[in-house]
Design brief:
Layout: H1 13-20, H2 25-32, H3 36-43, H4 49-56, H5 78-93, H6 99-110, H7 116-129, H8 144-153, H9 165-183, H10 205-220, E1 260-269, E2 289-301, E3 326-334, E4 339-348, E5 354-362, E6 365-374, E7 384-390, E8 395-404
Antiparallel strand pairs: 1-2, 1-8, 2-3, 3-4, 4-5, 5-6, 6-7, 7-8
């Protein structure tokens, strides 16, 4: 029992703690400042019951029930994580937040990837605060955290009405910048595997975001009846691990959810007339960019089943036995019925990023190679985004997403 005999101090610590679980974390912090005993109760309790209840009632999902599977039951620090999230929300809503504070908040939002209630909180904060459109971010346009979060959102928070002139202009500028990045041949080389990566193998999220911006904008303009309603899932909810169709009933060996039917959009243009002129090239009447839909059917194969004519460099074997490098083959069929063989592999790198590498083959000859990265968690509904390369080193964006498991 607390020493004082009057008021709330006369109650047992257990009763006070239970009452505090019904308060906002800011109110709990204010209560801790009333006296030394209250401070000890809030911040130096023998267990994390109070902070666990505050976390779960914010509401956030219970991370112990996460399906992500990237970490081996590490203890969860309820107090520190709740404090980080509440601070990030306050920064997002603050009119005086500094760029450094905003970047810290972005990192916090990026770490909230798996449970649905927690993702809804992230979307609500970003949408209601308009944080991603703040002028303070202008000098951070190459930030990897900012680009990664925008990639996860895939323009889902950038809707605008037809009479919103400012919104239309924002999207026009964003699309032009993204196209310039995606079709600039200088962004592709052997050292970055001809894909959206840095030379050290890390994901270049600015490149990934640009790819998703280009394809999302192109899909919005499709008029082909057979394609108009076929879209990859977008938004933070689609980045949850194992949120792809059939992911929970997949072959247990197929940790990446490779096997099944996939949709794949690709865009391409004639590079011979391309000019880097701040995006004005794309506004010319004669400019043409084509977007096509392909249907893929993939199944796992043993490494020794990969044919000799598949000459792409192999991924290394994963250091984690739970995620061995997977090899697959299958078919890719275009709208006009042309069919190619597909051969490739999926690999989990040391920081939990899933990379895909595959080739389109016709008559035992490689026609195109593709390098991609899983957007979000393992086997996410958002799928795989990356770049394709032809034998003539032309480049373009692709978006691959799971439709169903094998029949």
């Amino acid at each position: 029992m607390m020493k004082h005999s009057n008021g709330i101090s006369s109650l047992s610590p257990e009763i006070i703690e239970h009452a505090l679980t019904h308060c906002h974390p800011r109110d709990v912090a204010a209560f801790s400042q009333t006296c030394r005993t209250a401070y000890q109760l809030v911040y130096h309790s023998r267990d994390q019951y109070l902070w666990r209840q505050l976390f779960l009632s914010y509401p956030f999902d219970d991370p112990r029930r996460s399906l992500q599977g990237l970490h081996r039951h590490a203890p969860f620090d309820w107090k520190s994580e709740l404090q980080r999230r509440v601070l990030a929300e306050a920064i997002a809503r603050s009119p005086s937040a500094t760029p450094e504070e905003l970047m810290d908040a972005l990192e916090t939002f990026l770490n909230v990837r798996v449970p649905s209630q927690s993702l809804l909180w992230v979307v609500d904060v970003l949408q209601s605060s308009n944080m991603l459109h703040l002028p303070l971010f202008d000098h951070c346009n190459t930030s990897q955290n900012l680009a990664q979060l925008r990639s996860y959102l895939a323009l889902t928070l950038d809707d605008y009405d037809e009479d919103d002139v400012g919104g239309m202009e924002w999207m026009k500028v964003l699309r032009a910048k993204s196209r310039c990045y995606v079709y600039d041949l200088r962004n592709y080389c052997r050292e970055n595997d001809w894909g959206p990566f840095w030379k050290n193998g890390c994901v270049n999220w600015v490149h990934v975001e640009s790819i998703m911006n280009v394809l999302s904008s192109n899909l919005a303009e499709l008029s082909e009846p057979s394609q108009i309603d076929i879209r990859p899932p977008c938004g933070l909810e689609a980045t949850r691990a194992y949120s792809a169709p059939g992911a929970t009933t997949r072959n247990l060996k197929d940790w990446a959810g490779v096997e099944g039917t996939w949709g794949r959009y690709i865009s391409f243009m004639d590079h011979r007339n391309f000019r880097l002129d701040g995006g004005a090239f794309f506004e010319r009447a004669r400019y043409g960019e084509v977007t096509c839909l392909l249907d893929l059917t993939l199944h796992l194969v043993e490494p020794d089943a990969i044919p000799d004519y598949y000459t792409l460099e192999s991924f290394p074997e994963s250091d984690d036995p739970r995620y061995p490098t997977l090899y697959f083959s299958g078919t890719s069929v275009g709208i006009q019925g042309n069919e190619n063989e597909v051969i490739g592999s999926a690999y989990m790198n040391g920081v939990g990023v899933v990379r895909w590498r595959f080739a389109s083959v016709y008559d035992n000859h490689l026609l195109w190679s593709s390098e991609g990265v899983q957007v979000g968690g393992i086997a996410s509904a958002a799928g795989v985004v990356g770049s394709w390369t032809s034998v003539y080193h032309e480049h373009g964006p692709f978006w691959l997403w799971k439709i169903s498991n094998p029949a």
